[in-house]
Amino acid sequence: MKLHIALNVIFWMALSGISGKTLAQGGMFATASGNTSFSSKTPMENIDAENKKTQVLLNTTTGELAIRMNMRDFVFPNKLMQEHFNENYMESAKYPTGTFSGKMDQTIDFTKDGAYDASATGSFTIHGVAKNRTIKGKLKVEGGKITITSDFEVALTDHKIEVPQIVFVKIAHSIKVKSEYILSPYKK
Amino acid sequence: MKALRLAIFLLFPFTALHAQNDLLGELNKLDSNTTVPVEATFKSTRIINGHTVETVKKNHMDFRISHRFGRLNSGSYQLYGLDQATLRLGFEYGLTDDLMIGVGRSTEQKAFDFFAKYRLIKQTTGSKVIPVSVTLFASSAVRTLRPLTEEEIPRTFQNKLTYVYQALIARKFSEKLSLQITPTYLYRNLPELAGEERGLFSLGLGGRLKISKRVSVNAEYFWTARDNSGLPYHDSMALGVDIDTGGHVFQLHFTNSLGMIEKQFIGETTGSWGKGDIHYGFNISRTFSFDKRSKR
């Protein structure tokens, strides 16, 4: 009788232990050098910047996706623009990062090579303001690496990013964002 | 028994939930051991008269037009000084992100000034903390004004030269407040007034307080290690407002100094705030990028 109880306890605890470990370990892909760029085009001025240090974590078992970037890692050719971006628009001292935390909407077999149209739904936070969004993109599995690419737009008013009247015509109200993340298997 | 099994069964989902929040948390952990450089201690390379620790970035050029008018107490006939305008035109260029050079020409004494400024130490936070930024400044000025009277002896070229050396030490205390101290050494081959020493030590104190994202209030004072009792000189003090409109910065200020280069405002200020010898001034600076990748 006591042996029966003991075995049960051990069995259930072992099950939760093993499953927990599998969830954390199995099928994690990541990069710390993902490329996120954005551009704003108006007849008055074009603004372009690139962040080559985007961090991405994808759990291929659960489809969970986390993306994080430091606003200060966006590089502009015009350094004064970069300073204004951080000081006046993004207020990077208060809100240093932009993040996306969510889940893939489709179930994809990551063990097979292939190219897929995909989307992820979750919380997108910029300038301290979170918005639930579904972002569409393409996913490619090839040679043990997963490449995520996506083109989407960010409306400045959605995230309380203020544009003063005097430069209103120089900055697009919806910014085009492009991302390209090449993920490799991740070990903690 | 059944309760025990139930309890253990309930523990199972917690491991799943923990993994979901962990993903973003995992990424957050990656950043914790980086050093963050403190940026934009000041919006501009000048507080008002004096320089700040900031330099012009690599391949960028700053074009500055500085106006200084006459004294407010010169009466309505002189439009309170606005009729007596003096100018300084300057071009400043960033050779690297930390080293800049500049050239300027002032109406006052028809002086040309040349300078170089180098960011030696930058303030940082994060895993490695450096409390202040230190920038070194060196300048030389040539006064080319010809003698104004018959009695005045023309200067040799050497006697037209003056040199300034400064260590600019600043700290960004918060997003709104930055302060700077500026130990200075001024050397004049031939001072303006007879009997004055060639070398002059000074200590500048200045700062800026941001009152909105694009507007700040600036103040500056230069104490001179000189007994001014026998001389008509006063220490320079200035108060102003900076307005940043993107590519341009507008600076509006009041000061008792007429000159806009170190040799003049530190060493030769004859105005006194108490007597109303206050000059209104305004500067406009525009930054151009010569970076090949930039379209503007």
Task: Give a verbal description of the structure.
The complex is a heterodimer of chains A (188) and B (296). Chain A is an alpha+beta fold and 188 residues long. Chain A has one domain (27-185): Lipid/polyisoprenoid-binding, YceI-like (Lipocalin, Beta Barrel), CATH 2.40.128.110. Helices cover 19% and strands 51% of the residues of chain A. Chain A has two helices and nine strands, in the order H-E-E-E-E-H-E-E-E-E-E. Chain A has helices at residues 2-25, 79-89; strands at residues 28-41, 46-59, 64-70, 74-75, 97-104, 114-126, 129-142, 145-155, 174-185. Chain A has an eight-stranded antiparallel beta barrel with strand order 1-2-3-5-6-7-8-9. In chain A, strand 2 and strand 3 form a beta hairpin. The radius of gyration of chain A is 21 Å and the shape is elongated. Residues 16-25 of chain A have low confidence and may be disordered. With 296 residues, chain B is mainly β. Chain B has a single domain (35-289), classed as monomeric porin ompg (Porin, Beta Barrel), CATH 2.40.160.40. In chain B, 12% of the residues lie in helices and 44% in strands. Chain B has helices at residues 2-30, 262-267, and strands at 35-37, 60-71, 86-94, 99-106, 111-121, 124-126, 133-143, 161-172, 177-188, 199-210, 215-224, 236-244, 248-255, 279-289. In chain B, the strands form two sheets. In chain B, strands 2-3-4-5-7-8-9-10-11-12-13-14 form a twelve-stranded antiparallel β-barrel. A two-stranded antiparallel sheet of chain B has the order 1-6. Chain B is elongated and about 115 Å long. Chain A binds chain B through residues 5, 8-9, 12-13, 15-17, 19-20, 23-24, 32, 45-46, 55, 57, 59, 62, 64-68, 70, 72, 76-80, 83-84, 86-88, 93-94, 97, 99, 101, 164, 166-167, 170, and chain B through 1, 4-5, 8-9, 11-12, 15-16, 18-20, 22-24, 26-28, 30-31, 36, 39-40, 57-58, 60, 97, 175, 213-214, 244-247, 287, 289, 291-296.
